[in-house]
Amino acid sequence: MTVTIGSRVIGGGRPAYLIAEIGLNHNGDVDLAKELIDVAADAGADAVKFQKRTPDISTPVSMRDTLRETPWGTMTYLDYRHRVEFDRDQYIEVSDHALLRGLEWFASPWDAPSVAFLETLNVVAHKIASACLTDIPLLEAVRDTGKPVILSTGMSTMEQIDAAIEVLGTDRLVLMHATSTYPMEPGEANLRMIPALRDRFPGVPVGYSGHERGLQISLAAVALGAVAVERHITLDRTMWGSDHAASLEPTGLQHLIRDIRIVEEALGDGVKRVFPGERAPMAKLRRVLT
């Protein structure tokens, strides 16, 4: 089965769909968001993804009054969440920039009002963050849009994944294997979950959302059949913010996308044949011909 997001078909032997996650790495700055969009476009990504919250709903009560040191001074966690959220005009500005650069764009809504907000902006898909996989009202709101859904499966049991898919259905679903550690160590990658999810949910495209340092694990995910790859991006991993350290800088993203396309070419079709490049060595080295 394939899933179409915007102009791209995911699965069915197509090239992997490459998502550059900006998330909150724009730190509430539209110009920084545009720079990150340019980084994604220049590297050859297919889409950029943001995060959309209604802070008064999505911020856990236990966290709201926690003080946090920020570039704008000490503020409560709730005030920080308000500070980094884009409003409608800002989203229109960054989405227009993404479209002008030839990228699809969408976001992870963290609450039902955010789903409605994103729908007014005509997003091509919705992404369910791993943290939201058990939020049934949110899953129902996303399902009811009729848009394609990308579901990350980090910090979740198989039973929880089953329950989420029971709500979402499989017709327009892309599953993303993920481990929600920031940054993730190799021993927690568990990449064999990619074929395991593919076996458990036949016909559902399965990709990989990574939070590791470096490129190797994402490349291995493609070799194991991941049909989509999502990685956080930043201008500088030392920037302030919770996701920057687990993100790829511009050169890293360029190298990742270049190397994914090389891996895809190298995978071939699994049919054994003698390639043209082998004929000269065969004539020179093979003594017994049949």
UniProtKB/TrEMBL annotation:
InterPro entries, A to Z: Aldolase_TIM, PseI-like, PseI/NeuA/B-like_N
Start and end residues of each PseI/NeuA/B-like domain: 36-272
Designated name of the protein: N-acetylneuraminate synthase family protein
Naturally occurring in which organism (per UniProt): Microbacterium pumilum
